[in-house]
Amino acid sequence: MMFIRSFVFFLGVLAAFALGWIGIVGVPDMMLARIEAPPELKRYTAEQLYGRSIYVREGCLYCHSQQVRPEGFGADQARFWGRPSVPADYLYDKPHLLGTMRTGPDLFNIGARQTSEEWHLLHLYNPRLVTKGSIMPPHPWLFEEKPTAGPGEEALVLPDSLAPARKVVVPTAEAKALVAYLLSLNHTYPVSQGAASDDTAKTRR
Ligand code: HEC
Predict the structure, then answer these.
(1) Per residue in 176-189, pLDDT tens?
(2) Cα(first)–Cα(last) distance of the chain, in Å?
């Protein structure tokens, strides 16, 4: 008798875990399996992927999200441009960097909003150079101070008050790759209704 009870208990526990697994892993996996990349979504280049790894290393994710929410969830489309993001937009993102915090603006379409490489480099070196009163931390370790710029290098154009004495500030390969990644973040292309998640489809109706 005792044995049968234990066995039934064991089966119950097994069923509870199996149901949880199906609901949390199995069903979403099936729902996302048929998603195809939108024709205009480009794969990252090697440099952009390198920049993406710097984005992860520097923890940009802790202040910046990468998702435009559907209407009814705030003024995302007016503030951050584009349409609500869909699962297909993230097909080449491993790991995805959706983020949950918005201490700074969403960056899903920053490559469309701010297209200047020079602006991005200045902003990373010292955000207050281009955004008055910015609270974003500066990232000077992505830059090098040198007596002069080497061949193929371009020094930042800094105001005298911030330029180091008798030296120039040159972006490192890390800074350049990070900016290449930021400029690639442009998801303003159209997607078909089929690519939209059930949620987005519902709010659009
Ligand atoms: C402590 C929070 C914080 C961190 C960490 C942070 N940022 Fe920011 N970021 C902000 C804030 C706040 C703003 C808005 C003010 C400004 O433009 O500087 C901003 C603005 C930006 C903008 C301009 C957005 C726009 O719409 O104009 C870009 C691009 C950006 N950040 C990129 C980055 C990158 C890349 C990293 C990682 C290297 C990073 N940020 C790390 C807080 C942060």
Answers:
(1) 999 999 999 999 99
(2) 57
